[in-house]
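Dig into my protein:

:::
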Amino acid sequence: MATNNQTALITGATSGIGYELAKLFAQDGFRLVIVSRNEATLQQVAEDFKQLGSPQVTTIIKDLTQLGAAEEVYQETKRQGITVNVLVNDAGVGEYGFFHEVDFSKDLEIIQLNIITFVHLTKLYLRDMLAANEGRVLQLASIASHQPTPRLAVYAASKAFVLSLTDALIHELKDTNVTMTALLPGATDTDFFRKANMEHTKAAQEDPYDPAMVAKTGYDALMKGENHAVAGAMMKAQVVLSNMLPNELVSTMAEKYMLPAD
């Protein structure tokens, strides 16, 4: 893909894997559209991406956990005359705890962002890509897409949804020039653990992956038009095992990483 005048819209670009992905797009000369509810952080990272080589960075202040946010983002890009050539659905949220103890409002926030906004953004921009018969989509799934995870149950279920939908759409797109890639990171050294109240867990403390490495894995796969990208040899082995073993055993294995590190 020639990057001249190409635009990538990235959710979750203010930190973690999304930030590292945006850096890669900027370095390759993509125009960027970045979305966040924090205006100050948006403006700060926008300057970072300009310094790295992005010729234009458009910021959209929007809380993607709110109903209707995807449509509002889409209409704003239309209003500004921006054609989105690459969509990166990186934004996501989780919450640690036993299912019956986590407040339902948190479950709704996870479902709204990880599923509803994700689906709506994909649908809106995919229609435009198919009309032009050109485009790329990177969907942030997770190793949890393959692992029912006690104490992170709703988050893991939402990521299983992400992977299932992505795989179905990959098949639907096979005769077009639009590609879709699922990135499946394992535990990664980002702010996710703090926001999900799970900094004390083994997953958070036992050598999580570098977000820059994870982002590069996903970016390279996206640019090659590959269906899946799994960062790290250990994660690849976990995917294979998770697909071979019964869910009861997979859940038992996954729960070990949810236990306190000490």
Remarks:
- Residues 7-256 form a domain with the Rossmann fold fold (CATH 3.40.50.720).
- The first strand starts at residue 7 and ends at 11.
- Strands lie at 7-11, 31-36, 57-61, 86-89, 135-140, 178-184, 228-230.
- DSSP finds ten helices and seven strands in the chain.
